[in-house]
C-alpha cells in the first residue's frame, strides 16, 4: 500500500476511534453521575414528592393494608387508627433517613466502596414511635382521668376486658395505665387470658404477666389480643415479640428469603468495575486518536483544526443518539410493573421511573452537547481562518487555542455529568418548593393548646403526642399558654371557664382539697395548672434542640401570655434560644423575608404574644401583625370566617379550626380535620378575607389529615408563584 493510502487509512481509523471514544466518555460519565450517585436517587424521590405520596396515596390505599399492618408490627389496631396515625409511627423524616441509608449502601456496594451488600434498616425509631402510639391510645386516654392516690384495681381489670371486647368489634380501646403489684399483675393476667383459647394460655401467660408487671399495658394487650382475634394469631404474637427484641431489620436477608435474585447486583457491581477501566481507556484513546488526527492531517493547520472539531462533534452526536435510542428502546422504564401491584403503588413507581429516566437522559444529553459544542467551535474556527486568514490570529496562537478547546470539550464530556447531575434540591419547611415563598405566604399546621397533651397527662387534653413529637409529625406552629401556678382561689375562679366539663371540674376541685400548694416557676398550663402542667423553660429548651436538629425548619410560637414579658424573655434566654429568635420588622405591613432567607440567617423561631408587645424586639403582639377567625364554636356547623381579634387587612391570618363543647371534641376533630373539610373552609375564608391562611390551628393534629390539607395549600401557592 502506498504511503498516501496508509496515511489516509490511519486518519480514518483515528477519526472513528476519536468519535467512539468521545461517545464512550460521555456515556460512562453519565452512568457514574446518575446510577452510581446517591444524589440522583434523592433528587428523583424529592421531585416526585415520593415521601408525601407515600402517606397521602399509598399507605391509605385499602389494597396496601397488609403492609400498614406490618409497619405497626401486627398490633391489632383498627384500620382507621392505623392510617390516621401512620405519621406518628413512621414520620416522614424517619422514612427519608431510612431510605437514604439504603441508597448509600447500594451505591457504595456498586462502586466497590464496600465488599458486601448489607441493607440494614434501623427500626429502633419506628419501635419507639410505636411504643408512644400504643401508650397514648392504649394507656393514657383513661389514666389521666383516674387521678387518685391508690389505683382502682377492680376498675382496671374491668377496663382491660372492655378494651379487648372493643378490639374484637374493631373499635379503638381506652385503657388506664396504672402501676400494679405482682399480685395485681397476676390477677390482671388471669382476667386477660380468659378471652384467649385455652390451648394458648400457658404459652402467653409469662409474657403477659411480665409486661403488666412493668406497667407495659400496650404490649400485654397486643400479645393477648393477637391470640384472641384471628386464626394464626400465635404467629403474629411471635412476630411482635421478635420485632420488639431487635432493633435492626436485615433487608438483604428478607429480600433473598422472598425469592429475589441478588446475583444481578453482583453482576452489576462487576460491570461497574469494568466501567471505570473503560472510562480511563476511552479518555486515553480519545486523546491519542485526536493527536494522531492532528499529526497526520492536511498540511494546512486550519483544515486539521476542522477535522479535529468534526471528530469531537461526531462523538457528541453519537452520544446524543445513543441516549435517545436507549430511551426509545426501554420505553422510559427500568422495570415492568406487575399487574398485581395496587394502583397507588403502580402510579408512584411509574412516576419515579419516568422522572429517573428523564433526569438520566437530560444528564446524558448535556454531556453530548458539551462535546458537540466544543467540536463545532473548533470546526467553525478552522473554517473562519480559511475564509479570512488575515484578520485572525497567527497559526501558532490558533494551535494553542485548538489544543485548549479540544481538551476542554473532552473534559466537558467527562466532568459535566458529575457536576450538573441531579441532586436533592434544597428544602425549606420540608419542601423544595417553598424556599422562595415569604413567611407570610406559607401555611403552617398549628397545634391549638400544644402543651395540653395525653402524653403529659393533662385532664381534657387537646393533643395526643408531646410537643417535640408534634413537631416530628409536621406541626410548625405551637399555641402555648404561659402561667404561674395558681392558688386554690384562682382555681375556683377559673373553673367557670366553659371549656371544663362537670367531671373535669369535680376532679380539679378534689385536687384543690389535697396538699397541693402553688409551685414556683413558670409553667405551660391549660387555664388551670392542676389540670396539667409542664415547665416552660425545659420545654423551650426541647424546642430549641429540635430546631438545631432540623436546620431547614421554621417554628412559630403564639403565646397566650399570663406572665410578664420580662419573665418570658428571661425564660427564652435561660433556654439558650437567643441565636434562633427572629426579629420581625417594626412595620407590620412590611413583607416578611422568604423561608430561604430566614433559614440562611439561622433565625428560625418566631414568637408572638396575645397581650404583650415587647420590650424584647423579637416578642411582638400577634394582633399587630395578624388577624384571626372566631374560635368559640360549639359545633362544626357554627364555623365562620368572621373577623375577630386583629380585625382585617393584616399580613398574617390565623384560622381557628376546632370545636369546643365542654372541652375539646375528638369526634368533631375527626370530621373537621379531614383534608376536604379543612381545605373547603380555608379557601372560603381566604376568599372572604382576600388573604392566604397562614396558621391552621386544630385540636388533635394526629387525627384526620390536617397536615395533608396544609401541604396542599402550600403546593398550590408554590405552583402559583411559578
UniProtKB/TrEMBL annotation:
The keyword Membrane applies. It holds the Pfam family PI-PLC_X. InterPro entries: PI-PLC_domain (IPR051057), PLC-like_Pdiesterase_TIM-brl (IPR017946). The chain crosses the membrane at residues 274-295, 307-329, 365-386, 398-420. It comes from the Bacteria. Keywords: Membrane, Transmembrane, Transmembrane helix. This is Integral membrane protein. PANTHER family: PLC-LIKE PHOSPHODIESTERASE (PTHR13593:SF140), PTHR13593. CDD domains: PI-PLCc_At5g67130_like.
